[in-house]
From TrEMBL:
GO terms for molecular function: DNA-binding transcription factor activity. InterPro entries: ArsR-like_HTH, HTH_MarR-typ, MarR/SlyA-like, WH-like_DNA-bd_sf, WH_DNA-bd_sf. One of its GO terms (biological process) is response to stress. This is Winged helix-turn-helix transcriptional regulator. PANTHER family: MARR FAMILY REGULATORY PROTEIN, TRANSCRIPTIONAL REGULATOR, MARR FAMILY. SMART domains: HTH_MARR. Residues 1-144 form the HTH marR-type domain. It comes from the Bacteria. It holds the Pfam family MarR_2.
Length: 158
């Protein structure tokens, strides 16, 4: 006789977490498009975060993202063409090129932070402040301390 399915099968939890993540990211990008950043894609946010305010080289960017230098360079090319990044000489080493955020790239990051705060507030209105805080606290309890890793694009793509 087969055993009945559990009322809350284990595979549902990661799917719900992914659906919550996807909902937040989709809502973020819809709002960014309305605010003048229609070209930004989810991967671009990881790249802009990895470049950071000090800039980086394509090799280091690839390491941070967990992708090859060539893959990082291709993404940088796209973001340069869209006006989010620029290439510049490294003042410390004339042989190296830095990848840096442009003012438009910084604007995209700043707007993202504001929109994420608004999305969190929307969840708070739907679920209650205590429940959202409890979700965050519980996720902190079951995830590693270094939960923010910029190699997530590489993790998703293998």
């Amino acid at each position: 006789m087969p055993t009945p399915d559990p009322p809350r099968p284990g595979f549902v939890l990661p799917l719900l977490l992914l659906a919550g993540f996807r909902t937040l990211i989709d809502d973020l990008h819809a709002e960014l498009a309305r605010q003048g950043h229609p070209e930004l894609r989810p991967l671009h946010g990881f790249v802009l975060q990895a470049v950071g305010t000090d800039g980086t080289t394509a090799s280091e960017l690839g390491n941070r993202l967990g992708v090859s230098k060539q893959a990082a360079g291709k993404t940088v090319d796209r973001l340069v063409a869209l006006g989010y990044l620029e290439r510049a000489d490294d003042p410390r080493d004339a042989r190296r090129k830095l990848v840096r955020l442009t003012p438009y790239g910084l604007d995209g990051l700043r707007r993202s932070a504001v929109v994420f705060d608004e999305l969190r507030q929307r969840w708070t209105e739907a679920l209650g402040a205590d429940r959202v805080a409890a979700i965050e606290d519980d996720l902190r309890r079951v995830t590693p301390a270094n939960w923010f890793r910029l190699d997530i694009p590489g993790w998703f793509t293998g």
